[in-house]
């Protein structure tokens, strides 16, 4: 965990910048993950719907 310094020291400044940059990258990746997950769920739902419709058509064709 990050410890709080009483005063900003020369060692902490670059580390804090690096941590902030990594946090930004993490947030972008997390957003991308959620966008891809939502798109996958939508696609999965549509494929299921099409499979159900196809199955229903095949049953009525055989009858």
Strand-helix topology:
Elements: H1 12-62
Fold and architecture overview:
- The chain is mostly helical and 63 residues long.
- The chain is built from 1 helix and no strands.
- The relative contact order is 0.06.
Write down the secondary-structure element order: H
Radius of gyration (Å): 25 Å
Distance between the termini: 68 Å
Helix content: over 70%
Overall pLDDT, averaged? 90
Q: Based on helices, strands and strand pairing, what is the structural class?
A: mainly alpha
- Overall tally of domains: 1
Biggest beta sheet summary: none
Please tell me what the overall shape is.
Answer: rod-shaped
Pick out the low-confidence regions: none
What is the helix tally? Answer: 1
Keywords:
single chain; 63 residues; mainly alpha; 1 helix; 81% helix
In short:
With 63 residues, the protein is mainly α. It has one helix spanning 12-62.
């Amino acid at each position: 965990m990050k410890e709080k310094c009483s005063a900003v020291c020369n060692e902490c400044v670059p580390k804090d910048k690096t941590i902030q940059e990594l946090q930004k990258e993490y947030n972008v990746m997390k957003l991308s993950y959620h966008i891809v997950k939502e798109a996958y769920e939508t696609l999965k739902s549509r494929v299921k719907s099409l499979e159900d419709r196809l199955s229903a058509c095949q049953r009525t064709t055989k009858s």
